[in-house]
Design a protein that fits this description.
Blueprint lengths: L5 H21 L5 H22 L3 E12 L6 E15 L3 E4 L1 H4 L4 E6 L18 E4 L1 E6 L4 E5 L21 E6 L7 E12 L9 E4 L11 E3 L5 E8 L10 E5 H14 L5 E2 L2 E5 L2 H7 L7 E6 L4 H5 L6 E5 L2 E2 L3 H9 L5 E8 L2 E8 L1 E2 L17 E2 L4 E5 L2 H4 L11 E6 L15 E5 L2 E2 L3 H9 L6 E8 L2 E8 L2
Antiparallel strand pairs: 1-2, 1-4, 2-3, 3-7, 4-5, 6-7, 8-9, 8-11, 9-10, 10-13, 11-12, 12-13, 14-21, 15-16, 16-17, 17-18, 17-19, 19-20, 22-23, 23-24, 24-25, 25-26, 25-27, 27-28
Helix pairs in contact: 1-2
Length: 475
């Protein structure tokens, strides 16, 4: 078991170096014993934490499809992937990242072997764990959360903490299997409690400098009490390895996604038919708004619940169900979480406060579920680096309105097989390839089989309601 972390190293350095420096400047240090006691207590705390958390952290092994050029022919072969996860219920429910599961056709979980207390310290090498088959109960790509189920009773598990109580500078400990190194642990601090990838993005992340590397994805980020404060998700690094900038899905977001996937098989989200923006000082000045912060309604969809309730463009949202709204992200998350409810929204309009009751409708379109229709190797179009499904009535029910009724929907893109980094995206609908009409997956497979490596390929696709030609060059 590894217990390596930048923060831990820094703590040891400070605890040892500061008394030494003080002795050089002021003479003998009389509190060396207390420094040793502090170091020992800190070490004992970490050991206790690891012993409590480790048994609930699992390694996830997936198998999917990839392209093999062995023997001079393009063949589909099985591809193995690895990630991490955490048991959150003693009956075998596991939370991980959606991108860890991806388009895998087989998922297995390596569960740590329980060790008797009497045998715990007889060897530093732990016994091998149990490799168990896992069912994917569902996944949500917006939060990057997936839920797995393995057979088991009374399994070691962790509880979700309250990520709203996480503060910058708190100690954070990351568990997982980086590069396949089972059950490793690193330590750092919470660098930021609410980092957005882009402004008004409904997703926020906990940023930490605890070392997170490939394979850590899906593992828990815990506090000193051993509670899950986040699910490790991704890093920012030019090298692809840890540079001290890691991100985790906050526990409160992960918990809601877990509970809904466990209950419904998917995450339900509410909508009222508005576009909201965060008010900035510059926007407030330009529009003569009464305050330089908060939430501004910039669009109200025709025939929407918001229009029916009387919301208007340029309304300033003051509160949602009595809770003050500070930014558009906060407003959007609250709407998401109240699907099926009627809520109270307080607005500021022309200097007057008004309150409206608005029905929050469940968002009917869920393109992420299209991937569930890809059931075999037949769905993989290797030359284009995509997993596709026929545009059937069932699939269209999950999609935004499309212009045609025949084609192939891109359910997933294989990163290392994709013809171009800026090419196809999940949700794209392919209608033509080099002027040849595509009405089904069988059509696309036949056309792709005749495409030559290095030749340009023009796809007519529909993306977000607009058609366009996408030019690719096959590798």
């Amino acid at each position: 078991m590894r217990c390596l972390g930048i923060f831990y190293t820094a703590c040891l350095f400070l605890l040892v170096a500061i008394p030494a420096l003080a002795q050089q400047r002021t003479g003998p240090v009389r509190n060396s014993a207390s420094s040793a006691d502090t170091m020992s207590a800190f070490s004992d705390m970490l050991q206790d934490l690891v012993e409590r958390v480790d048994p609930a952290v699992v390694q996830i092994i997936t198998r999917g499809f990839a392209l093999s050029n062995e023997g001079g022919a393009s063949l589909i072969r099985s591809q193995r992937g690895m990630g991490s996860g955490v048991v959150v219920d003693p009956k075998g429910y596991i939370v991980t990242n959606a991108h860890v599961v991806g388009i895998a056709r087989q998922v297995q979980v390596l569960l740590p072997e329980a060790v008797d207390e009497e045998m715990r310290f007889t060897s530093v090498v732990k016994p091998a764990g149990k490799l168990l088959p896992a069912r994917v109960l569902g996944m949500d790509r917006e939060t990057d959360i997936a839920v797995l189920k393995i057979d088991g009773e009374n399994l070691p598990h962790l509880d979700f903490g309250d990520s709203e109580q996480v503060r910058q500078g708190q100690v954070a400990v990351a568990f997982g299997s980086p590069f396949g190194l089972e059950n490793s642990v690193t330590m750092g601090v919470v660098s930021s409690v609410a980092r957005q990838v882009s402004m008004d993005d409904p997703m926020i992340y906990i940023q930490t400098d605890a070392a997170i590397n490939p394979g850590n994805s899906g593992g828990p980020l815990v506090n000193v009490r051993g509670e899950i404060i986040g699910i490790n998700a991704f890093i920012v690094s030019p090298s692809g390895a840890n540079d001290g900038i890691g991100f985790a899905v906050p526990a409160n977001i992960a918990r809601v996604a877990y509970e809904q996937i466990r209950k419904y098989g998917r995450v339900t989200r509410g909508q009222i038919g508005v576009v909201a923006q965060t008010i900035t000082p510059s926007l407030a000045e330009a529009l003569s708004l009464p305050q330089p912060w908060g939430v501004l309604i910039s669009d109200v969809a025709p025939k929407s619940a918001a229009e029916a309730a009387g919301l208007e463009v340029k309304d300033v949202v003051l509160s949602f169900e009595g809770k003050a709204m500070e930014n558009a992200r906060q407003f959007g998350v609250n709407i998401y979480q109240h699907a099926g409810d009627t809520v109270s929204i307080e607005l500021l309009r022309n200097g007057q406060k008004v309150t409206r009751r608005v029905a929050v409708l469940e968002r009917p379109r869920d393109p992420d579920r299209v991937l569930s229709f890809a059931q075999s190797a037949e769905n993989l179009i290797a030359k284009l680096g995509l997993v596709g499904v026929d545009l059937t009535g069932e699939v269209m029910a999950l999609m935004p309105p499309v212009r045609r009724f025949q084609g192939v929907v891109v359910a997933g893109v294989i990163a290392d097989l994709s013809a171009d980094d800026n090419s196809l995206r999940p949700g794209d609908v392919i209608y033509e390839v080099n002027n040849q009409r595509v009405t089904s997956l069988a059509d696309l497979r036949a056309i792709a089989a005749n495409l030559q490596s290095g030749s340009p390929v023009a796809l007519l696709i529909e993306r977000l309601g607009q058609t366009q030609f996408l030019l690719l060059e096959l590798p």
